Amino acid sequence: MMQSYTVTILPSGIKFTVEPLETIVEAALRQNIDYPYSCLQGTCTSCICKLRCGRVSYGDLPYIFTDEEKKSGLTYACIAYPLSDLEIEITYQDSE
Known about the structure:
Largest sheet: 5 strands, mixed
Shape: globular
């Protein structure tokens, strides 16, 4: 059975729920949480976060990070589906 998971954004401590078949960014936007994104396809890098705790899946997509990036915990939140509760760290960039 599919289940929902809780995502905690660090360092702010904001928490939100991700429903089954929903990406991290989709869930954040549905709940009016300010989350950086642009393309929603995993190409622009706007949504990259650091996975501090938990696991995600990219579904049928091939893994898009180098081995070094995987070890550092980089995650594309717009195409990542939680497999557990998560703690992610986001660095908000100043918009021009």
